[in-house]
From TrEMBL:
Keywords from the UniProt entry: Phosphoprotein
SMART domains: REC
InterPro entries noted in UniProt: Bact_response_regulator (IPR050595), CheY-like_superfamily (IPR011006), Sig_transdc_resp-reg_receiver (IPR001789)
Entry protein name: Response regulatory domain-containing protein
Record has Phosphoprotein as a keyword: yes
Domain named Response regulatory: residues: 1-111
Source organism of this protein record: Edaphosphingomonas fennica
Modified residues (4-aspartylphosphate): 46
GO biological process: phosphorelay signal transduction system
Amino acid sequence: MDDDEAIRDALSDLLMLEGFACHPFERASAFLAEVGRAPFDCLITDMRMPGMSGLELLEHLRDLGSDLPAIVLTSVVDERTRARSLALGARAWLGKPVADEVLLGQLRLALRDRGAAIPRGPAE
């Protein structure tokens, strides 16, 4: 989830090329509207978004009792926000720009720990 369309598109393209199902959202509110209706195995979110921030989203998910793993992909350089995100259950805090393999590695770890299906590599 990212409010920057170019970043959302690039991330979606990367994930789909690697065989992952991907549902991009511009805002946390749009994601939250779908959480109860569609199954999600992992959340990749930015910190700075309009409306609800990534940190607020993580807090909201925790308050709902969600165990959805989250990966933070952000340009925010703030140790307190990073520490709070990790305390709220974020699996990783990755700075932008991030190498594709680093992000994909963290995603695969989160999915493995959740017992979710992991694509073997680029989709044919």
